[in-house]
Design brief:
Length: 287
């Protein structure tokens, strides 16, 4: 990503994987919550974010069990409209090294991931771009399929979109409904959104027919999908990281959804204020 990360505005609680970690909090760290395998695990409580800061809603920390296998799925929802060209180029540049950088970051935080998969939902604007408004990849298992992951990312072109806003909520809905792994003793499901524009309201009537059954009718239904403890996401395993402006859609999400971290970006700025290190560290803090 472009050099020079945005000023640290986070007030998230420290990762509490061990008692020693809890005694020495790290700034801007998302608490790592261990997932109970039982479906009856209570959902995490939402926090009220302070004004004019990074907005977050995070589950309470818990001690990490030892000797268990961890599986992490990450879905990138990437705005691929014209203004996003700088970050698309940076994503392409860093795709092959993504696995190594994430693992290095996790190791430095005392975390170990046995299985890591990534997939991409690239979006524009259904009203302006029609069928070209969405590109989806399967999950790529890293590092074994890093070349295929890189090939898909390299095929993304920043173009189209018309006027702001874009179809970002549709991308989030498709990410939530991803075929998440059922492997591992503990799991983490992370959705990362990169956009410099607000989001259009959900409009299933304008999307291609083959997508309509996969999209909720409105924001309330999307919220229910995210919060549903019997839905596709684990009650405490889910994480949503927003690199998005304060505006329609994204501010609505960060105000009411659980387990969300919002890094506000400059509207129309192409995420020029977000660097690659910030993205990697935010993912590491969420695992």
């Amino acid at each position: 990503m472009p050099d020079g990360s945005a000023p640290d505005r986070g007030h998230a609680a420290p990762d509490a994987t061990t008692p020693a970690d809890a005694a020495a909090p790290a700034p801007d760290e998302v608490p790592a919550v261990e997932d109970a395998p039982a479906a009856s695990e209570p959902a995490a409580a939402a926090d009220t974010p302070p004004a004019n800061t990074e907005q977050s809603s995070l589950a309470a920390p818990a001690p990490a069990p030892r000797g268990l296998s961890y599986a992490v799925d990450i879905v990138f929802c990437i705005d691929v409209t014209g203004s996003m060209d700088p970050i698309i180029d940076a994503v392409k540049t860093n795709a092959l090294r993504f696995y190594d950088d994430v693992q290095t970051n996790l190791t430095a935080k005392g975390k170990n991931v046995d299985e890591l998969r990534v997939r991409v939902v690239a979006f524009r604007d259904f009203a302006a771009d029609g069928d070209a408004a969405l590109q989806e990849s399967p999950f790529f298992r890293l590092p074994a399929e890093r070349s295929a992951f890189s090939d898909f990312v390299n095929g993304l072109i920043a173009e189209g979109g018309g006027d702001a806003p874009e179809s970002g909520l549709e991308a989030v809905a498709l990410a939530v409904n991803s075929p998440w792994t059922n492997r591992g003793d503990r799991r983490r499901q992370v959705v990362v959104v990169w956009t410099d524009q607000p989001a259009n309201p959900l409009q299933p009537e304008i999307v291609p027919a083959d997508l309509k059954s996969r999209l909720p009718a409105d924001f309330s239904a999307l919220t229910d999908l995210w919060e549903d403890t019997q839905g596709p996401l684990g009650a405490s395993s889910k994480r949503l990281i927003l690199f998005a402006p304060d505006g329609p859609g994204w501010s609505d999400i960060s105000a009411v959804w659980e387990n969300v971290v919002h890094h506000p970006s400059q509207a129309g700025g192409g995420l020029s204020d977000v660097d690659y290190g910030t993205i990697i560290d935010s993912i590491g803090n969420s695992v």
